[in-house]
Amino acid sequence: xSRSEDDIDAQRAAELAARTSxxxxxxxxxxxxxxxxAAEDALGEALVSALxxxxxxxxxxNPDSWLLAAARxxxxxxxxxxxxxxxxxxxxELLVGQARREGVSDAVFPDERLKLLFVxxxxxxxxxxxxxxxxxxxLGLDAARIASAFLVxxxxxxxxxxxxxxxxxxxxxxxxxxDSRELPSRIDAVLEAIYAAFGSGWEDIAGSDPRRRGLAEExxxxxxxxxxxxxxxxxxxxxxxxxxxxxxxxxxxxxSTGRYVPLDQQDVALWSRKMIDEAEEIxxxxxxxxxxxxxxxxxxxxSAHARRTATGRTDWEAIALLYEGLLLCAGTIGARxxxxxxxxxxxxxGSGLAALDAIPRDxxxxxxxxxxxxxxxxxxxxxxxEAAQAFARAIGxxxxxxxxxxxxxxxxx
Amino acid sequence: MKYTILVYENTADFGARTDAKRKDAYxxxxxxxxxxxxxxxxxxxxxxxxxxxxxxxxxxRDGKRxxxxxxxxxxxxxxxGYYVIEVPDLDQALDWAARCPSAATGxxxxxxNLST
Lengths: 413, 116
Known about the structure:
The structure holds two protein chains of two kinds. Chain A has helices spanning 3-33, 36-57, 63-81, 89-101, 113-120, 127-139, 143-150, 154-170, 183-198, 216-229, 234-248, 273-288, 294-306, 308-311, 316-329, 333-347, 349-357, 368-380, 384-397, 401-412. Chain A is mostly helical. The longest helix of chain A has 31 residues, at 3-33. Residues 103-107 and 200-212 of chain A have low confidence and may be disordered. Chain B is built from three helices and six strands, in the order βααββββαβ. Chain B has helices at residues 11-16, 23-39, 90-99; strands at 2-9, 43-48, 56-61, 64-69, 78-86, 107-112. In chain B, the strands form two sheets. In chain B, strands 2-5-1-6 form a four-stranded antiparallel beta sheet. In chain B, strands 3-4 form a two-stranded antiparallel sheet. In chain B, strand 3 and strand 4 form a beta hairpin. The mean pLDDT of chain B is 94. The chains are: A mainly alpha, B alpha+beta.
């Protein structure tokens, strides 16, 4: 094999290890070292040195343990150089001990990612930082990409992540899976953070917020991870089913010319059967536990929409009822607008508008889906002037130019 | 805090302003955006600018006036207008900037205003 092919192989192996094992390695190092930033830095350096070493010496049999050993050496070196403070010494000894016990080539290390997920979504961590932290530590996404997805200046996002990792270290947040008493509320925070990466608003009647679309696949990956690590948590399964149902419709959301297609006009033949079937199976597993919750209900709503592939029609009464259940456990603005949309379909535009009118105006000033739905309902009721105003507001609040064009077309037609 | 949203448009955007087929969509989107800013109570001011060919740039060099026909710099995207908004933080300013129609075609720059 030529030198350059070796290089490419080594590069691929390093990249593959980075992608598939990054989160496991960071989690394992961070759990024993209790310092996420230090673990990431050490692993980053280990990856760089892998790229230098592997083309020369060949790719090791077990790239993960090679990286783990290299990262651990760096952590220990760094700590020694920093004249380790008394508090950090036990962690150092733990690491040195681990390094001695485990051979470099055959180490099988435990999956600590669940602990890392719980740390990322710890109540002491600023809510706005939880999802970005998870994406960075578990998936290895860089701060600039995360910043783009959340529409935050890249420098700001880097600072936030640095600050929050310092807090984890300095506040001594423990790397552990919460006990059964605390578990339900703590799981919610983990799931919320994953769902935030996926992006809400997929199924908003006329507009979907596109800013987080780029992270949908990453969120599904995290959802699968949590569902696997916490098989007895029905809400974790519910979230995964919800995301899969939404992902299944991705190919139908734009027509061949890039125009926006609202849910009720989508061609069901373009929906992914495979993902829908998987989502249905997971949702069925979740409901066996007999503990309904917000994500299971949202998944059930999407499941009801998916029934259109079989029946050719949408049971809006059933959907409105599911939204009522959802409002009891999660009365978000998105859920209230979704409920109004379902009522409008099931019982007429007047019922939908009445439900919209019941939402406090202050909370919807900049909420695009509210104005888009309101505009449609006013148009259907023949209240042209008010409809035009609501359309204008919805257009002005849209980020996606395809959605803007769709609404402009509706307003004119 | 006050932020200025600088709206950079490409040639196609500037062209859309007067193109019979595209001008309704163009002006409609900006009217809607401006109205949304006003309705949300964050609008402080702003202006749309005539296209770059109408720009004249002046530099004083060694006490001499150098008057140049055209914009300050020839770049793919040119300043087409600006909005001044008042919002609590940069995140919210970026939220609004992302909704500006030219964010999807040209680019939008957000800068905090110097406090006066």
